[in-house]
């Protein structure tokens, strides 16, 4: 369905930017930094998310699926739609806590 919408939008002269991301949500900046160090040392992002994330998406390795600009809180949105793909970003502070964010894909 999303691909059909993109084709229709493209024919109308518009574009639809989307991104896919996964994240880990924790309560403290220190915990976020510690988990990021573990991932940078080779720990599996999905395994860390399953074990530590306070978000229900943790059960699926932090996967948030595909979404468009403005569907996430501003701080999260800014990272997902402007920072590098395939890199773990964070800590990113939002009203929910501290996130590690990995943009897995972005299309325009």
Summarize this, please?
This protein is α+β, with helices and mostly antiparallel strands and 108 residues long. 34% of the residues lie in helices and 30% in strands.
Key traits:
4 helices; Chitinase A, domain 3; 108 residues; alpha+beta
- CA-CA gap between termini: 17 Å
- What is the second-level CATH architecture? Roll
Biggest sheet record: 4 strands, antiparallel
What sort of overall outline do the alpha carbons produce when their principal axes are compared?
globular
Architecture overview:
The chain is an alpha+beta fold and 108 residues long. The protein has one domain: Chitinase A, domain 3 (Roll). The protein has four helices and four strands, in the order αβααβαββ. A four-stranded antiparallel beta sheet has the order 2-1-4-3. The two termini are 17 Å apart. About 6% of the residues have low confidence.
List the helices and strands and how they pair.
Layout: H1 2-11, E1 18-26, H2 29-40, H3 45-52, E2 63-67, H4 74-80, E3 88-94, E4 97-107
Antiparallel strand pairs: 1-2, 1-4, 3-4
């Amino acid at each position: 369905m999303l691909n059909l919408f993109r084709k229709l939008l493209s024919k109308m002269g518009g574009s639809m930017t989307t991104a896919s991301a996964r994240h880990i949500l924790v309560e403290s900046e220190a915990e976020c930094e510690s988990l990021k160090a573990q991932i940078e040392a080779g720990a599996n992002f999905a395994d860390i998310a399953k074990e530590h994330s306070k978000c229900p998406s943790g059960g699926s390795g932090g996967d948030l699926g595909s979404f468009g600009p403005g569907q996430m809180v501003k701080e999260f949105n800014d990272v997902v739609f402007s920072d590098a793909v395939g890199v773990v970003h964070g800590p990113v502070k939002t009203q929910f806590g501290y996130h590690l964010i990995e943009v897995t894909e972005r299309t325009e």
